[in-house]
Amino acid sequence: MEIPGRPFPPHDGPVLSVVDMHTGGEPLRVVVAGLPEVGGRTLLEKRRFVRRELDWVRRVLLLEPRGHRDMYGVLLVPSEYGDAHLGALFMHNEGYSTMCGHAVLALARFAVDYGLVPEPQAPETRVNMHCPCGLVTAFVEYAEGRSGRARFHSVPAFAFATDVIVDVPEFGKIKVDIGYGGAFYAYVSANKFGLDVSSSKMRDLVDAASAVTEAVKAQVKLHHPDSEDLAFLYGTILTDGNDAFSEEPTANICVFADAQVDRSPTGSGVTGRIALQYHKGLIQLNQTRTFKSGTTDSLFTGKAVKETKCGDFKAVVVEVSGHAYYTGTAHFVLEHEDILKNGFLLK
């Protein structure tokens, strides 16, 4: 039945409006209205400002009762780069990322559909996106006024270290690779823990990946040639171990932030994994691999398209492709007397 009345329920705080999407099953909540002004001249300064002054927005939108522990979000802010169509600040259950491939694929469609790109072009529209890790170029299929599948070219991706031995509590000494694809990840085959990324219990996979993340954080010093803001381990990606090039999909599962599980194959994770495979000679330029999510069986493709440098690291530009979809819109309100208004996270 229709219920007449006001557009919003009773509230005495801000109204935050969002568009919800998903890429390969991984959600993205895009804030389109209600965000207070974000201070800072550069995107990294804006990221620090949001973390310091506006973290309540992240908590309100991503945590319960309006979200859940695996919700993901993005704040759209101006970029200091004149050729960027938008600046993006990525949010998760623990804080703020430097890169997010599934979000870039979704935002590329969003930018075209919501007028952030003034004149979309067929058959493909270019979207310049300023992420905390740098400028990322995306391309969106566009025909008869409708956007479709997207792809993006990464910032320089590289193998930070291979065959690093870390002492993982309860598991012993484990050999891992560390790759950068806009964010740093540890990569390790799930079979080293007696697990399978597609069939093992999620709790067991999360426990193993989280243990690796904590061990690497404690035992390996990361650095990035461009900024210390980028020099932190985002998470661990457990793989099926099939790193040599094959026409068959290779599966992985990403556990990042505070034991948050990516439902997609993980765009920045695919980027780092391609960089590692290229570094080891397991894949050549422009060889397209298909990556499958161990959680949803959704697929991304990835390929190294160009050699480059990142400081002293030999690097590659990686192209990742996938399809994002809209799931809805929402307006969220706050009531000041609600003791849970700023969100909570069950451990």
Please summarize what this structure is:
The chain has helices spanning 43-53, 55-62, 101-113, 202-219, 267-279, and strands spanning 15-23, 26-33, 73-77, 86-91, 96-97, 124-131, 134-143, 146-153, 157-168, 172-180, 184-189, 233-239, 250-256, 260-261, 289-293, 299-310, 313-322, 324-333. It is α+β, with helices and mostly antiparallel strands.
Keyword list:
347 residues; alpha+beta; Diaminopimelate Epimerase, Chain A, domain 1; 2 domains; eight-stranded mixed beta barrel; 5 helices; Pro_racemase_fam
What this model shows, in words?
Homodimer. This protein has 347 residues and is α+β, with helices and mostly antiparallel strands. The chain folds into two domains: 12-144 and 326-334, Roll (Diaminopimelate Epimerase, Chain A, domain 1); 156-321, Diaminopimelate Epimerase, Chain A, domain 1. The chain is built from five helices and 18 strands. The protein has helices at 43-53, 55-62, 101-113, 202-219, 267-279; strands at 15-23, 26-33, 73-77, 86-91, 96-97, 124-131, 134-143, 146-153, 157-168, 172-180, 184-189, 233-239, 250-256, 260-261, 289-293, 299-310, 313-322, 324-333. It has an eight-stranded mixed barrel.
Helices and strands, with pairings:
Layout: E1 15-23, E2 26-33, H1 43-53, H2 55-62, E3 73-77, E4 86-91, E5 96-97, H3 101-113, E6 124-131, E7 134-143, E8 146-153, E9 157-168, E10 172-180, E11 184-189, H4 202-219, E12 233-239, E13 250-256, E14 260-261, H5 267-279, E15 289-293, E16 299-310, E17 313-322, E18 324-333
Parallel strand pairs: 2-3, 4-6, 11-12, 13-15
Antiparallel strand pairs: 1-2, 1-18, 3-4, 4-5, 6-7, 7-8, 8-17, 9-10, 9-17, 10-11, 12-13, 13-14, 15-16, 16-17
Helix pairs in contact: 3-5
